[in-house]
Amino acid sequence: MTESHGARTARGARRGKALWRGARRNPGFALGLAVLLALGVIAALAPLIFPAGSGLQVGESYAAPSGEHLLGLDDGGADVLAELTWGARISLLVGVCAGAITVLVGGLVGLLSGYFGGWLEQMLMRVTDFFLVIPVLPVMIIIAALYGTHLVNTILIIGLLSWQSTARVVRAQAKSVRERLFVRRARAMGSSHARTLIRHVLPQVGPLLAASTALAIGHAIFFEAALRFLGLADSNTTSWGQMIADAFQRGATNAGAWWVLLPPGLAIGLVVLMTTVLGRRLEQHMNPRLEVSHLGLRSFRRQHAAGRSR
Amino acid sequence: MGSAIVRRILSAAVLVWAAITFNFFLFRLAPGNPTAQLSRVPQGSVALQEQLNREFGLDRPILVQYFRYLEQLGQGNLGVSFVNKQPVRGNLVDAIGNTLPMVMLGVLLAIVIGITLGVLAGAHRGGPLDHASVGFATFMYSLPAQWIGLVLLFLLSGWLPAGGMTDEFLIDPSLGERIADVAVHMILPSLTMALVMFGQYVLVTRSSVVETLSDDYVLTARAKGFGAGYVVRRHVLRNALLPTVALIGLSVGAMVGGAILVEVVFSWPGIGRTIYDSIVARDYPMMQGAFLVFTVSVVLSNLLADATYGLLDPRVRRMGGAR
User: Fold this and answer.
1) Which of A39, A65, A145, A178 has the smallest set of CB atoms within 10 Å of its CB?
2) Chain A residues within an 8 Å CB radius of B242
3) How many other CB atoms sit within 10 Å of the CB of residue A141?
4) CA–CA distance, A267 with A217 (Å, rounded to integer)
5) What secondary structure, in 3-state letters, does B49-93 show?
6) What interface predicted TM-score (ipTM) does this complex get?
7) Least CA distance to A132: which residue of chain B?
8) Residues B60-78: what's their mean pLDDT?
9) CA distances (Å), B307 to each of A28, B4, B221, in order?
10) pTM summary value
11) Chain A environment of B252 (Cβ under 8 Å)
């Protein structure tokens, strides 16, 4: 059990190298990660880049893009690029927080039901089925309308209504890991359930959780924009979704101000696209056989398809 | 096979019941009494609130209320709209009547685009056509529905009506003129729905085609000397389209979300717009009714997707379903 410090760093370095090799072999993965990290850094540095904050009038309403204001001005004469940068903070914050809740709840439900099985699995899976089948956006807008539109509420609503597919995938994986020899051996040697789950099952489910996190962040940003558009989020703060809502409500389309409408939508599209790419690559990384499916591993794929079609 | 269908119908019934119960308690457990929000409703007063409390039995225990709700629902009574004082059911039927043609046209378009691109991509796996189709589909799939609608509005509103379902200034139109008018108004919202929905159809059709192409009977057909195009058209398509058919039923949940946003963008007087208006006006009976319609239609279409799949693919039947 005890490991020398040297052995641990060596293992860390090995993992780091493996990750680097993976990134080089898999440009989609590296690209997705790089873009998301860059956006995160820009969002974090917003107070340094645009110290005046968002919503500040700096010129005429709907002034076209110019050298001074690269993306022009919006209806209130605020710099669109500044709004976009500040908006990234809320959009990404909601995405990351709601995504974390999604993966936490989904991972927990999936792990517990997959590992323990029995009545616990039955119960949890019936609940999951229910949440899989109800239309999510209507539920979100109704809860937001009834319970309030504070930012924390928005995060909770999105996170607590998005975990169901993660739970499904994690359960399938945990179920198969449970039957593997090393897990059974650990149990036979007296490892407790908690220890087996954390030390032996969780690492096998880890990449799947990472993939789910990436996808969940994208979904959460999507839903945040939808709630904003329907006026069900705190409109005092700016986010990419709010910018789209404002462009609609305040008639940017009629004013011909494409520079107000296009940036927030493309920003959301970029993030969602990158999280999708990242998530897919992580799934492949974990399950390389997905990539060589044409080699005729038909039985494998059938099982996989059956597991995936929920 | 018969028992499998019965089991599925039963589980769908349980889901509908769970959704109705969820619907009831969601509204009843919200902070404050439903009628406490009446202050936000025009012409609300304390006297009206007390009268409504008595009238709707809101002073009774919650379980009594629940069974009363179920009973009323069983009789098809969804309550009365706070706003226009009409029965919710009538309002909803009108709204659904407006939504269905718009969404169906959009989904039909999405299916046509999705299957075409998906088959092309799958048949030319790894080629430029594949990359272009998949890239386009994934990109469109990443964009918010309301934004796609607004961009279309921006690009095309000069040529096409920007909102609503009819031209109010059309004087004494004939039936043909009226249909043509609605059809013209339908183009933008339906096109938006199509662009929102088609991406996932492309991806599923593609992977299904790729998978089917590696089946033995395809190799046999090729070995007999049939051309690649012929084999795809005659042998692969029929089998490869099964998952897409199932997906259409399973994507009704996404359709619902898309329809809400699209109808708000284009002021389309359908059920998505209804739920939005009822939220703005705090019209609780309408909200609850519209939500019920959404939930039930999603549960039923999931059931239908399952059933169709079994009907179309005997292999699924024999295996007793993938579940």
Assistant:
1) A65
2) none
3) 24
4) 14
5) HHHHHHHCCCCCCHHHHHHHHHHHHHCCCCCECCCCCCEHHHHHH
6) 0.85
7) B253
8) 83
9) 38, 10, 30
10) 0.84
11) 135
